[in-house]
Amino acid sequence: MGIFFDLIIGGFAIGACYALVALSMVIIYKTSEVPNFAQGEMAMVATFVAFSMIQSYGIGFWTTAAITIVFSFLLGCALELAFLRPAKDPTVLGLIVITLGAEMILYGIAGWKWGANQNPFPVPFSEYSGIMVSGVMITEINIWTFVTSVIMMFLLFLFFRYTKVGVAMKAVQQNAFAARAMGIPTRRILTFTWGLSSVTGAVAGMLIAPIATLDPNMMLDPMMKGFAAAVLGGMTSLPGAAIGGYLLGLIENFFGGYVSLEFKSVVAFAVIVLILCVKPSGLFVKHYEKKV
Amino acid sequence: MDMKRDYFEDIQLFRTNTVLVATVVFLAVLAIVPFFAGAYTLYVLNLIAIHSIVAIGLNILVGYTGQISLGHAGFFAIGAYSCVLLMVKAGVPFIFALPAAGFISAVFGFVLGLPSLRLEGPYLAIATLGFGMAVTQVISHSDFTGGHMGIKAPPMSVGPFVADTGAAQYAVIVTITVILAIAAVNLVKSRVGRAFVAIRDSEVAAEAMGINLPYYKTLAFAVSAFYTGIAGALMAFALEHVSAGSFNLILSITFLAMVIVGGLASVMGSILGAALLTYLQLKLLVIQEAPGIGPFLLEVSKRFLTPEGIPNIQSIVIGAIMIAIVIFEPLGMHGIYLRTKRYWRTWPF
Lengths: 292, 349
Known about the structure:
The complex is a heterodimer. Chain A contains eleven helices and two strands. By secondary structure, chain A is mostly helical. In chain A, strands 1-2 form a two-stranded antiparallel ribbon. In chain A, α2 (39-57) crosses α8. The radius of gyration of chain A is 19 Å and the shape is globular. Chain A starts with a helix and ends in a 14-residue tail after the last helix. Chain B has one domain: ABC transporter involved in vitamin B12 uptake, BtuC (Orthogonal Bundle), CATH 1.10.3470. In chain B, β2 (156-158) and β3 form a beta hairpin. Chain B is globular and about 55 Å long. Chain B starts with 6 loop residues before the first helix and ends with a helix.
């Protein structure tokens, strides 16, 4: 029975990371109808910046986290301003190619600056000690990952519910044209959306880095999982993406624990294809039929 | 000016004598190159030819049929591994293993095409991305395929003729490339090609015109996968070794970049794009040896970045090219060619 609870705890911890990655994708997908393939790399670069600050300049962890969040916001805004805004009515393929190009650029920059070495990401939480709950060990890092993700989601909820910018973002997501007619500067809001999504991704990156190792390929796998989670919950639903992330973490961990550890990574792909074939709009979104 | 007046003009392979002569001259140049070029040049040309096959195959899917795929590294890997495994484990001769690799890849293409019937745009991109990554994962974890270490490719041989030198490989690879390129040009001019284009322009309208949507969509995936599989098999021989790690997402993106740079829905563009990007990639890998800019970059890297990370400049450049093409020249090199042609046709007026 012990392994069962271990898998649940591990699943929730890794699912928390997937949920955040999925959220950051959904935030962008809802506004610009483009799956942001650069998301993982944006988070990876932000995490590397945090790593450099801790390692090379000896800045404390919490200060670093705060600076990284500001940096990732600026990075997201900068990418939108530099690459997406100049494109004049791009097609879906064009948008996808732009985000892929951004991914290549960020990947190259990270490889150039930090090399291909695998670095440990230092956090003030232990991977080995923690609290025992009726014979099952919950490590500090798992608690920290889970709690941070929940706090982040709660903050996002508050942001979209109660701040003016958040409500404006929702308005742009629902109908950009009507939003503009109501006096919302849609393009500026779109830039902020990228910034917000980048922040969410960066938090996910800083949660994933201590579990995995920090190198330029770090986020390729979580990005895939984030997509799977987003598809599972529905690409247009924020709560759906969050729940999808936790679900995927659990599914994947149980598959790894009971079926096959080697093919654990294929689960995400199987989930994507299954969900897309059975219920393309995701588990938590009403199906929307496209008209001619 | 470019209007086609009857059906024959639409389907003929060479529209004008100029095109015919240019093609013949180009093929003649290809034929005599191995007698003059050195080993490295031939290696580069082999890579360009192989990437051209992939770009043509991917263009049939992306440019003509309008379906996005980010999983072509997966088909590339399937082609490479099935050809090498067939030869090593089953002792099938190269001449049969190569088409077999193409068809195995095509079967996977057909299977991946099935979800495409229900997906479009972004969702399809995500699903194919997942496919590409899943293939690499499975291959690198399976003992049968040699795991992470990969396997060594046997020399390719056509009958008694063993292609072990660069020139001999060039002969085999370029011949196959030319055949596949001409086949692609013919395919897109045929009934099937027109069905692809109709699906790209409007699925609903295409279906209303009586085009069998499931059939043609999966066919496009299968044909595209066939091309990529063949190219993958040839790549295994050009590099003499296959390993799962090289078939990653970056490779899929590079393939897509070749199509975008060359120009959507253009076979010639695909070849140009593949040639340009392959050449750039190889040159950028050794950019620190370039005169002028090389020492400067090395100095910058030493001071602010890591010198061993310099080859990553190729990712940066390719990414920048992809973005620039979408923003400034959505039709790619084929678009530039069309504009130039139109300009000079009426010159000096």
